[in-house]
Amino acid sequence: MTATDRAKDLAIAAAEAASDKLAHDIVAYDVSEVFVITDAFVLASAPTDRQVRAIVDGIEERLIELGAKPARREGQEEGRWVLLDYLDIVVHVQHSEEREYYLLEKLWKDCPRIELPETVTGSRP
């Protein structure tokens, strides 16, 4: 079983929205083989708490346009690690320090990546 098309579309839209708000190290994983509660995880980082919050706002705005609202949101006040649970996907926006400390990618290293557009994965000037 692989992530649904809806989950992939939401993951790509979330990644694009994060990129628009200058998030870095954006990746998406198809976790449907290891989790029954969601199909995809999206990870993004930012160097400041304020930027983490801006990225989260941008993701929520973009996904609302696609008819998706988060079922759960955690960490918004602290702005260090915000989790947005859309059921089909879970988005983690982390302060760069938290990202380096927790290394979530290691947990899902065996899961296939969801291909993201080059506008998301390309390097910034």
TrEMBL record:
Gene3D superfamilies: Beta Polymerase, domain 2. Its main location: cytoplasm. GO terms for cellular component: cytoplasm. The keyword Repressor applies. Keywords: Cytoplasm, Repressor, Translation regulation. One of its GO terms (molecular function) is ribosomal large subunit binding. InterPro entries: Iojap/RsfS/C7orf30, NT_sf. GO terms for biological process: cytosolic ribosome assembly; negative regulation of ribosome biogenesis; negative regulation of translation. It holds the Pfam family RsfS. The keyword Cytoplasm applies. It is found in: Cytoplasm. PANTHER family: IOJAP SUPERFAMILY ORTHOLOG, MITOCHONDRIAL ASSEMBLY OF RIBOSOMAL LARGE SUBUNIT PROTEIN 1. Functions as a ribosomal silencing factor. Interacts with ribosomal protein uL14 (rplN), blocking formation of intersubunit bridge B8. Prevents association of the 30S and 50S ribosomal subunits and the formation of functional ribosomes, thus repressing translation. Interacts with ribosomal protein uL14 (rplN). Belongs to the Iojap/RsfS family. This is Ribosomal silencing factor RsfS. It comes from Actinospica durhamensis. The gene is rsfS.
